[in-house]
Design a protein that fits this description.
The strands form seven sheets. The protein has a four-stranded antiparallel β-sheet with strand order 1-2-3-4, with no helix packed on it. The chain has helices at 2-14, 304-307; strands at residues 24-30, 34-39, 44-47, 52-54, 63-66, 72-76, 79-85, 88-94, 102-106, 109-113, 117-121, 127-132, 147-151, 154-159, 172-174, 182-184, 203-205, 208-213, 216-221, 227-231, 240-241, 246-250, 254-259, 264-270, 277-283, 286-291, 298-301. The protein starts with a helix and ends with a helix. A hairpin with a 5-residue loop joins β11 (117-121) and β12. The protein has two helices and 27 strands. The chain is mainly β. Helix content is 6%, strand content 45%.
């Protein structure tokens, strides 16, 4: 057996001739045309059409955030950056926070929310403490920052699922002050037994809020929380609003474009036969699908008249 040990030591000393390819754990679309991702070592990488390439950025990032106006931000504990290009950061903000952060846009102003505090991210790179993070007064304190949705009526607060299955909080959204309503929305840290994945974080599209709920996707009016549409597709991460009164939804086994507000199906494409879907991003008229175990995304063309500009 001694020769086997020597062989292992020799191979380790010589180093790897062919290193493993960069493996993304998250996909996003930067600038409307560039597919980017976060690697397993928490760095930004970009897809050149055939393979993943390293970025020149040295910052570690734990999450990518796409805000309603299309800009891309990345966050880590105590750090938020705005990504202008795969190798360029527009602005950096440093916060005195050790926990997870959520980047949100309220009244055309950028904020970073922790579980307890809300910070305004000023264009010059300065940070202003705005107070306590808005929470549903009737709900429990969440383990992660809530989703804050900007509307003309005020801020809609969506709290995600609990951090442990021992305290099964499935998540819910609550209407702004003066327009009180509440309804279930399944998203957060815990994939529920009846769903293979986690639901999309709720987002506003036109005048409705899109969220996952009980084997499907619901569209509820911003004004009163009433359900006005439903699709038999459990929307997950990568789902987002389109500019032509439509919404792009990512399901466990398919993607589709739906008309608002009723979520009438306009285009659907199955994702079966390519392995387990890990993440999906719509970018430049193509759907990038990250599956296991392949590190390179599969690209699916979307008709131009479906996605619009």
């Amino acid at each position: 057996m001694w020769w086997a040990v020597l062989l292992v030591l020799a191979s380790g000393a010589s180093g790897r001739v062919h290193p493993d390819p960069l493996r993304p754990v998250e996909l996003a679309c930067l600038g409307g045309k560039t597919i980017v991702g976060l690697s397993e070592d928490a760095h930004l990488i970009r897809f050149d059409g055939t393979a993943w390439q390293k970025s020149a950025l040295t910052e570690k990032m734990s999450r990518l955030w796409r805000v309603p106006d299309g800009r891309m931000f990345a966050s880590d504990r105590g750090l938020v950056v705005e990504l202008q290009e795969p190798d360029r950061v527009a602005t950096r903000w440093s916060l005195r926070e050790d926990g997870p952060l959520r980047v949100v846009m309220l009244k055309h102003q950028m904020y970073a929310a922790s579980v307890k505090a809300l910070y305004r991210l000023d264009p010059a790179g300065t940070v202003t403490f705005e107070g306590v993070t808005p929470l549903d007064p009737q709900g429990p304190r969440p383990h992660t920052p809530p989703v804050l949705l900007d509307s003309e009526l005020g801020t809609i607060i969506c709290t995600g699922s609990s951090a442990t299955e021992a305290t099964p909080i499935r998540g819910h959204c609550s209407g702004p002050n003066g327009h009180r309503y509440s309804y279930p929305a399944e998203f957060g840290l815990v994939p529920w037994p009846d769903e293979e994945g986690k639901g999309t974080e709720p987002f506003i599209c036109s005048d409705v809020v899109i969220s996952a709920r009980t084997h499907g996707t619901q569209a509820r009016q911003v004004s009163d929380g009433l359900q006005v549409g439903r699709a038999a597709l459990y929307a997950q991460r990568g789902s987002r609003c389109l500019s032509n009164g439509r919404v792009f939804l990512v399901g466990r086994r398919e993607v589709g474009v739906f008309q608002l507000p009723g979520l009438r199906s306009l285009w659907r494409r199955p994702l079966g036969g390519r392995g387990k879907v890990r993440d999906v991003a719509l970018c430049g008229g193509k759907v990038a699908v990250l599956t296991s175990p392949s590190p390179a995304p599969v690209l699916i063309d979307v008709p131009a008249d479906i996605v619009g500009k």
